[in-house]
Design brief:
Chain lengths: 454, 330
């Protein structure tokens, strides 16, 4: 390995490029989830505050809006470097296929533009616009956030199901950008991601208030903050389980190799069991708990259905089972855990119109946020590593897309340091926003000395 | 059609140079503001002028990048693979600038405000330099077509690139000074005389930088120099010089509102002069038509741009009018 690093050979640089992309994407995705989900919470709280006159709602709206402002700024800049990295790290992809996936990114640029403008209007105009106009000025933020997520994920869906072009002697021709954008993977993947974004925003926000309740601050303000955000996320958990099933069936039909890696299936068989846990050793999955016929039933609705194993493709074309399988398991297990926690909350609310009383509920609710983030990352690892060794499934290998320039690993080190600092600073600032009184002001606001917020 | 797309791309770059460039320039003035109560007021003015608009201003860059890869994918691949060192630094500089600015505003502790402020200000100077250096590399023909075919260092670290990088920083600094002087005249009139002096100084300095830059180009990239002075690009060069001088005269006469478009025109003309000088080549031996994406893509992207602009114009107008109304009231 050292020799590889010293000579700057491609394998080390390919690994560095992949890690750098994973780091910056994995980082941005968390922040982007707040860009999609937080506006819904802010607008709901502001609307309830206007309707009821309850100052707790107003304070929640104001605090969340400021967190939204900070996270939007951080998301804007962490998203920009991604657009650069598409070319810095993967010129082989962008040089040939940039035009095929250009349309959704152009649409995304406009959606982001609208979002940036209305974040400015909404935050700057808080005490300058009439209340109803102000509430309405927040709606485009929500719409544009969801639209952005949709557009970007269509491009990723295209990497799984490349459509809308012909290859003639390696040259791209007859491009139909709309067909590329609305490829078969687009519906399941975009819905899965957008629902996940609301869940992450809801559960993480709820975690903050669960911690406060555990520390003895169980007043109306903190309980309200918890209930609004947890309810949004909890309502979406069963939806997401259904969507997840749809995605898995889609993968089974359209990317059987990826499904085989997700489940650790090596030989093509009928009546394949569902594997829980296990590791790949020498081309087989060991130590897994097996649920008979489970995979065949879940993937194709028939206990005797055939599942194509990894042995169908050459060893060089197989994704690494020991990454994809555990990542998939982590995502599914957390999803089921969140379902149980949400059901607990739902039963308590149905009986007594309040959250469960015991400390265990609040402890679990406090870790639900980080768990949701972990599930999100695990899901992205599943789909991205599950597509390997292809960057464009069946069309272009990742190794052929990477920038051949030497020294990419140096870039990875620098980027890693910057992101470490950025993470610490972001968490510090968000903690201040969560606890400081008066609430610190968002970057988009004016020096609101005349409009202090308690 | 590809020519229309290229024009839209240049329009986006122009908007970024004017709006985003001024925001970067604000960071420079923040950096050298020094200490004491007057410096604090200056910093607050800068903070105020960036506050709700810098993200919208920043989107122009993303928009230009996306248009480049959609419309001229091989050019995007060639530039970003050869110039990956400065462009990585640009990406990181953008993070430092944006996060530093946002975090400073949220922080209350003096030590942290200084730390975040220094990050913001330093990145504001470094980022436009590297962007300009890459532009200088393209203009002097040092970024060839193909993936990572150019020299990884000399493609952006050469006389023309350094001159262009410094000029890019300077241009932003001047624009920021002009904008801030106008801002101060509404918001904090006591600051006007000192800012006006700063702006005049910056304007003269940028003029000198531009002259030196042209000399460097003449020695380092004679072909670029010839195409700047030997054809339609000359018109833009002359417009830039005249507009720059006019903006200085207007500043001298304390006509701050009028100085702003004059300074903007001077800057925009540099950019368009470069574009015209290089047309129809995007990279050495690669013309616009040869590099253009499939016509279906170009049409779809342009169609989206038309619809998008219809949404953007009223939104932007609303943003700037709330911002402006407030300033006039204040």
């Amino acid at each position: 390995m050292d020799a590889l690093l010293a000579t700057g050979l491609a394998p080390a640089d390919l690994g560095a490029a992949r890690v750098q992309m994973a780091l910056s994407l994995g980082w941005h995705i968390v922040v982007a989830c707040f860009g999609v989900g937080l506006p819904a919470l802010v607008l709901f709280a502001e609307w309830r505050g206007l309707r009821t006159g309850d100052p707790n709602y107003a304070l929640l709206a104001r605090r969340w809006a400021r967190a939204m402002g900070v996270l939007f700024a951080v998301g804007a800049v962490s998203g920009t470097i991604l657009s650069f990295e598409m070319g810095l790290l993967w010129p082989g992809l962008m040089g040939r296929f940039g035009e095929v996936i250009g349309l959704p990114f152009t649409l995304e640029a406009f959606a982001f533009f609208i979002e940036a403008i209305f974040v400015g209007i909404y935050l700057y105009g808080w005490d300058r616009l009439p209340p109803r106009a102000h509430l309405l000025s927040g709606v485009p933020i929500l719409v544009a956030g969801v639209a952005s997520a949709f557009f970007v994920v269509t491009a990723n869906a295209w990497m799984n199901q490349p459509r809308g072009f012909d290859l003639v002697n390696g040259e791209v021709s007859d491009v139909d950008p709309w067909a590329a954008m609305f490829n078969p993977a687009t519906p399941p993947q975009t819905v899965h991601m957008i629902v996940a974004a609301f869940m992450v925003a809801g559960f993480v926000t709820a975690s903050v208030y669960a911690v406060a309740v555990l520390r003895g601050r169980g007043d109306r303000y903190h309980r309200l903050g918890f209930t609004i955000s947890f309810t949004l996320a909890a309502l979406l958990v069963p939806v997401q389980i259904g969507v997840g099933d749809w995605v898995a069936r889609f993968v089974a039909d359209y990317q059987p190799t990826k499904l085989a890696a997700m489940e650790g299936v090596f030989q093509t068989e009928r009546g394949v069991p569902l594997h829980v846990g296990g590791v790949e050793i020498d081309g087989e999955l060991r130590y897994a708990v097996q649920i008979p016929d489970g995979l065949s039933l879940l993937a194709h609705g028939n206990p005797n259905a055939e599942i194509r194993g990894l042995a169908e493709v050459a060893p060089a074309d197989r994704p690494p089972v020991n990454v994809v399988h555990p990542a998939f398991q982590v995502m599914v297990d957390i999803g089921l855990g969140l379902l149980a926690l949400s059901a607990w909350f739902g039963v308590a609310w149905w009986r007594r119109r309040e959250p469960p009383r015991g400390p265990w509920f609040w402890r679990l609710a406090a870790i639900a946020g980080p768990a949701a983030v972990l599930a999100l990352e695990a899901g992205w690892v599943t789909t991205e590593v599950g597509r390997q060794p292809w960057i464009v499934w069946g069309v272009l290998r990742t190794a052929d897309a990477v920038n051949p320039a030497p020294g990419l690993w140096v870039g990875l080190v620098v980027v890693g340091v910057v992101y470490a600092v950025l993470t610490v600073a972001t968490i510090y600032v968000l903690r201040r926003l969560a606890t400081d009184r008066p609430v610190p002001i968002a970057p988009q606001e004016a020096d609101v000395a005349s409009f202090p917020v308690p | 059609m590809a020519q229309v797309l290229l024009a839209v791309l240049f329009a986006a770059l122009t908007a970024y140079a004017l709006l985003g460039g001024a925001d970067f320039g604000g960071g420079f003035w923040d950096l050298i503001a020094g200490g004491g109560p007057v410096a604090m007021r200056r910093r607050r003015l800068i903070e105020h002028s960036l506050g709700p608009v810098w993200e919208a201003n920043h989107v122009w860059l993303i928009f230009a990048v996306v248009l480049l890869w959609s419309g001229f994918p091989s050019v995007f691949a060639a530039v970003s693979s050869t110039a990956y060192i400065p462009l990585t630094l640009v990406g990181l500089g953008i993070i430092g600038r944006g996060a530093g600015f946002a975090f400073r505003k949220v922080s209350v502790e003096y030590r942290l405000r200084r730390l975040f402020g220094a990050t913001f200000a330093f990145s504001s100077v470094a980022t436009p330099f590297f962007l300009g250096a890459v532009a200088g590399g393209i203009a002097s023909g040092r970024i060839p077509p193909g993936v990572a075919r150019g020299n990884l260092v000399t493609s952006w670290w050469n006389p023309t690139s350094v001159a262009t990088g410094v000029l890019t920083v300077g241009v932003g600094v001047y624009l920021a000074a002009v904008f801030l002087t106008r801002e101060a005249s509404w918001h904090d009139p006591d600051l006007v005389p000192a800012l006006r002096r700063s702006a005049l100084l910056a304007g003269v300095a940028v003029g000198v930088l531009a002259a030196v830059g042209l000399l460097v180009v003449r020695l380092d990239a004679p072909r670029l120099f010839d195409s700047l002075f030997d054809g339609p690009a000359l018109v833009f060069v002359l417009v830039s010089i005249v507009a720059g001088v006019v903006s200085l005269v207007l500043l001298w006469a304390s006509r701050f509102v009028a100085a702003r478009p004059a300074a903007g025109l001077a800057v925009a003309s540099i950019l368009w002069g470069w574009g015209v000088a290089q047309y129809p080549n995007l990279l050495p031996g690669t013309t616009v038509d040869a590099a253009a994406a499939n016509s279906a893509v170009v049409q779809a992207v342009l169609g989206v741009c038309v619809v998008g602009v219809l949404l953007l114009v009223p939104s932007l107008w609303w943003l700037f009018s709330i911002f402006d109304a407030d300033r006039r009231g204040a």
